[in-house]
Amino acid sequence: MNCEVVIIGGGAAGLSAALMLTRARRSVLVVDGAEPRNKPAAHMHNYLSRDGLSPLDLLKHGRAEVEGYGGEIVNDTVRGVTKVDDGFAVELSGRVVTAKRLLVATGLVDEVPDLLRERWGRDVFSCPYCHGYEVRDQKLVVFGDEMKVALVRQWSADVTHVQSVDGIEVENDRLVAVISGGERVPADALVYSAPVKPRDELLLALGAETEETPVGPFVRTDAKGRTSVPGVYAAGNVTDPAAIVIVAAAQGAQAAGMINMDLVNASS
Fold it and tell me: Which of 3, 38, 202, 252 would staple 235 via disulfide (CB 3.0–4.6 Å)?
C-alpha cells in the first residue's frame, strides 16, 4: 500500500493531524495501538466545548471524523520504519506501507509504581490542571518538588508534602490515606509526580536529535513539528511532556499544515 502520510499514534495529536490532512485530500493511514495515556481517566478537562468528556469518547468521535473524510485507521503495531528513495517504508504486523511523509504521535508512558496503578487517573494523578478541580478543598497529599506543592495549593489549603509513598489505604473504592516513612497521612487524593518516558524508539532509530527537558531527553522539533530528520514530524507528548490533550491536538494540526505544504512544495 502506498499513501502520502502515515501517522503513527491515534491519540489527540495523531487524529487531529489526520483530520486536517484528509480534509486537504491527502491519502492518510493512522496506525494506533489503542493504548492511550489517559485511558484510566473517566473524564478529560480543559478541552474547550468538550470539558468532562471521556477521553475514549473523544477518540471515538475523532476516528469517525477522520474515516468520514476517507482516512484509514488500523489497530496495529509498527515493527520498524526505514528510509526509502521516495519516503519511508513502515512495517506493520502483516504488511509494509510506504509513505512520503511520516508523523509520529506515539505519546509517552507514565512510569507509575505498581502500588498506585489501580488508582491512577482517579484519585491518584499527576496533573492538577486535569484533575485538581474535582478534588478541590479536600485533603491532598503531594509527592513532588516544592513547586508542585505550591501549585496544588491553588485547589486546596489542606496539602501535605511527603518524601516517599510506601503504600496507600483504600476503603469503599476511595483513597483514604497515604503511607509515607511509616506515617499514615489521611488523604482524599494523591498528586504523584511519576517519571515519564517518551515512546520515541522509532524516532531515535531514524536518527532524530533530542534535547534536554526538566524530565529528561525528548526528541527536538521546531514550532511546526519538524524533527531533525527530513520528512519526519512529531507532535504531542512524544516530544512535549507538558502538552495536555487540547495542546497535543493543536500540535497535530500544526504539523499537518506543515506536512501538507511540504508535499505541495515537493510536487511543484
Answer: 252
pTM score: 0.95
Residue 66, burial from CB neighbour count under 10 angstroms (0-12, 13-18, 19+): buried
Give the integer Cα–Cα distance in Å for 81 and 165.
Answer: 40
Q: Read off the C-alpha cell for 256.
A: 499537518
**pLDDT tens digit sequence for 22-70:** 999 999 999 999 889 999 999 999 999 999 999 999 999 999 999 999 9
CA 29 to centroid of chain Cα atoms: 19
**Rounded to 5 degrees, what are φ and ψ at 159?**
-125, 130
Tell me phi and psi for residue 233, to 5 degrees: -120, 160
Contact (Cβ atoms closer than 8 angstroms) between residue 49 and residue 3: no
Partners of 66 in the β-ladder: none
Angle, CA 255 vertex, CA 253 and CA 256 arms, to 5°: 65
CA distances from 237 to 24, 49, 205, 249 (A): 25, 22, 18, 10
pLDDT per position as a tens digit, 162-216: 999 999 999 999 999 999 999 999 999 999 999 999 999 999 999 999 999 999 9
Largest separation between any pair of C-alpha atoms in the chain: 68
Q: Provide CB contacts within 8 A for 102, sequence distance 6+.
A: 5, 6, 8, 81, 87, 88, 90, 231, 232, 233
Query: Measured between alpha carbons, how far is residue 173 from residues 8, 19, 78, 130, 188 in Å?
Result: 36, 39, 37, 21, 11
